[in-house]
Design brief:
The structure holds 2 protein chains of 2 kinds.
Chain A: H1 3-60, H2 65-82, H3 88-113, H4 116-119, H5 122-157, H6 161-168, H7 180-183, H8 188-198
Chain B: H1 7-45, H2 48-89, E1 94-98, H3 99-102, E2 124-135, E3 138-148, E4 154-164, E5 173-178, H4 181-188, E6 195-196, H5 202-205, E7 208-212, H6 215-221, H7 224-235, E8 243-247, E9 250-256, H8 271-295, H9 301-305, H10 316-324, H11 330-370, H12 378-409
Helix pairs in contact in B: 1-2, 2-8, 8-10, 11-12
The chains are: A mainly alpha, B alpha+beta.
């Protein structure tokens, strides 16, 4: 057999492998986008719930004004960030803001526990239950997103994926990580101390 | 729940076993001796009356051979039934349904399993035994049954459990099945619209493979805590080899191959040698719904505060019986062979017919080309050749299609699922 045929076959195989790799990158990028849209849906649910929480807290927690304002400000910033582009930098910035927002609202809910009027209010109880459900869904959506991002990043950071990703205009996406406070083991003393300190 | 075997109860069961054994042995002996005896009488005497007597003897022998396994099966059903009834009597809120006595009773909640990804599509079900009731505030049905397809071939034999959950689940279908390895998992879901749910627990993924119609809903259910609970359930007595699905407000559990009746060969063994272990095993089985509800934390909060059943680890009885109640016993093998024969033999018959007539047509064509046909018979032969070739090609294609369909649907409950988590294909119309 002519050697040129062998080279032609090798080149065809190489091209097919490169195309498959390219197709994998594009598929995984689309999966990442799908996961991101799931995250968006649940984060929007969180944003929609926050004004209700703030309004409820505002009735009895006038002297927690600083915390309420911080929650409102962070919600506004997170809302603006969601309207920004989908570049990795923008997404990372958005996730950072969402992390801070979740931390602040969590702090607000813990503080609300110290107010008996709020703690026993049926609307507050229902709101807290809804918050817990939404947070569970955000956690699930985050796991879906991180799994998709992990697969995408593996495909585009290993050679020749890095070259193909450059050609396809696909960039590595940031992980949606839990805020540092959420990863730290909770301190019972700190929680009880903070609650006791705020008790009216 | 399990109770020690009362001596008089043991005596009664032992007498029943001996009586059944005696009848089975007599039926087998008569069945085996009847045929040669019939020949001796018929051939030896040779009169019309002797021939009629011999034919009667053959018929009686045949009936005896049929009756022997029926008597043994009835004994197995009776022992399991009486022990389950005795065990259930001590558990308030729990009842046993004797499917065989009820005659044609549809298995409770069987329709929930249609398109659940746990069992192949089925048309009918035959209930053998069911335990139904409430445990820790969770309504459940645990049924020992067989499922059959349109052609009456058994597609599932074992135990199915459905638990109505107190808390609603996210919409969609989430399935947890056994891990079959990289290639096995790919083949298991080939052609289906359902996607794997990648989880972050290598220990869990070494045992199970999760699928879902909604990636987020699947992860809402399969939290890291739930993954740990499912692994605990896998270690729980009786539950080894289980697969489950979360659908609407139900948890569905499948335990293929589990059989509550004792093995046929136990008829040969004195009851005192195995009854206590068997009774304990059945007692543990009655506790299984409560254990599943407790292990997976499905209980209603108020009920959960009530006394939880002890999470007993697998006992020697469990291990002994779990080994016996596998899917490699005679009944399961016979069901597989029956299904294989029923589905594959017609295809092979069609293929053989196509090969025969198609082969003759090829030979006729070769003869016509090399030797030639006479002018008078020219069109007649070539018409027959064309007809034979078309018949051969058509029948062989049909047979190949039937065999491929059989291979495609065999033990592949996931393949029939659409991306919406509903069963697709013919013969899937629920009960």
């Amino acid at each position: 057999m002519d050697a040129s045929w062998i080279w032609l076959a090798v080149a065809a195989l190489l091209l097919a492998a490169l195309y498959l790799w390219y197709a994998t990158i594009v598929t995984r990028r689309n999966k990442g986008r799908e996961a991101m849209s799931s995250v968006d849906v649940h984060l929007n649910q969180r944003h929609d719930l926050i004004p209700n929480i703030v309004k409820l807290a505002d009735r009895f927690m006038a002297h927690e004004r600083g915390l309420l304002e911080e929650v409102t400000r962070l919600r506004q910033q997170a809302g603006q960030a969601s309207a920004m582009g989908a570049s990795p930098g923008d997404v990372a910035q958005r996730f950072r803001l969402e992390g801070e927002l979740a931390r602040s609202v969590g702090q607000l809910l813990v503080t609300m526990e110290a107010y008996p009027q709020l703690k026993s209010d049926a609307t507050v109880i229902e709101t807290q239950r809804t918050w817990t459900e939404i947070e569970a869904q955000i956690t699930a959506a985050r796991r879906f997103y991180n799994a998709a991002v992990n697969q995408l990043n593996n495909a585009i950071q290993i050679f020749p994926g890095s070259v193909l990703a450059g050609l396809a205009g696909v960039n590595a996406m940031p992980f949606f990580e839990a805020p540092a406070e959420a990863r730290a083991a909770p301190s019972v003393d700190a929680i009880l101390g903070a609650a006791a300190g705020r008790r009216p | 729940v399990s109770a020690a075997a009362a001596p008089d109860d043991l005596d009664r069961l032992e007498q029943q076993r001996r009586r059944t054994l005696k009848r089975v042995v007599m039926a087998l002996a008569f069945g085996l001796a009847g045929f040669p005896l019939g020949f001796i009488i018929g051939d030896g005497i040779g009169t019309d009356a002797a021939i009629i007597a011999a034919e009667g003897l053959w018929l009686a022998a045949l009936l005896s051979l049929v009756a022997a396994p029926v008597m043994a099966a009835d004994w197995r059903r009776s022992v399991a039934g009486s022990l389950l009834d005795a065990t259930v009597a001590g558990s308030p809120g729990l009842r046993r349904i004797d499917g065989e006595r009820a005659g044609g009773l549809t298995a409770p909640d069987a329709a929930l399993f249609q398109g659940s990804g746990l069992v192949e599509p089925f048309q009918t079900s035959r209930l053998i035994n069911a335990l139904a009731g409430q445990s820790l505030g969770v309504s459940f049905v645990l049924a020992e049954l067989s499922l059959y397809d349109q052609k009456e071939h058994r597609v599932f034999g074992g135990v199915l459990g459905s638990f109505r959950l107190a808390r609603p689940l996210p919409p969609g279908l989430t399935i947890v099945t056994r891990d079959r390895g990289l290639l096995g998992n790919l083949l298991a879901r080939a052609g289906s619209g359902i996607e794997p749910v990648t989880l972050e627990d290598p220990g869990f993924e070494g045992v199970f493979e999760a699928y879902g119609t909604d990636q987020v809903a699947g992860r809402v259910i399969l939290t890291t805590t739930m993954l740990g609970r499912l692994r605990s359930l896998d270690e729980l007595a009786h539950a080894r080899g289980f697969s489950c699905a979360f659908r609407d407000d139900h948890l569905l559990v499948a335990l293929p191959g589990m059989r509550w009746r004792c093995a046929m060969w136990r008829l040969l063994q004195p009851m005192s040698a195995w009854l206590p272990a068997y009774r304990d095993w059945l007692g543990g089985l009655v506790e299984l719904p409560a254990r599943i509800a407790a292990t997976l934390d499905l209980a209603e909060p108020a009920a959960a505060e009530a006394a939880m059943p002890a999470m007993a680890p697998a006992t020697a009885a469990d291990r002994r019986y779990r080994g016996r109640f596998g899917r490699d016993d005679l009944e399961s093998v016979a069901a597989v062979l029956w299904r294989l024969g029923g589905a594959a033999l017609p295809a092979l018959y069609i293929a053989a017919s196509g090969l025969l007539f198609g082969g003759l047509a090829v030979f006729g064509a070769w003869y016509g080309i090399t030797e030639g046909y006479s002018d008078e018979l020219f069109w007649y032969f070539w018409f027959m050749v064309a007809f034979g070739l078309a018949y051969g090609a058509g029948t062989i294609a049909t047979a190949v299609r039937q065999l491929l369909h059989l291979a495609w649907t065999w033990n592949a409950p996931l393949r029939g699922l659409s991306s919406a988590g509903r069963a697709t294909g013919k013969g899937v119309n629920g009960l």
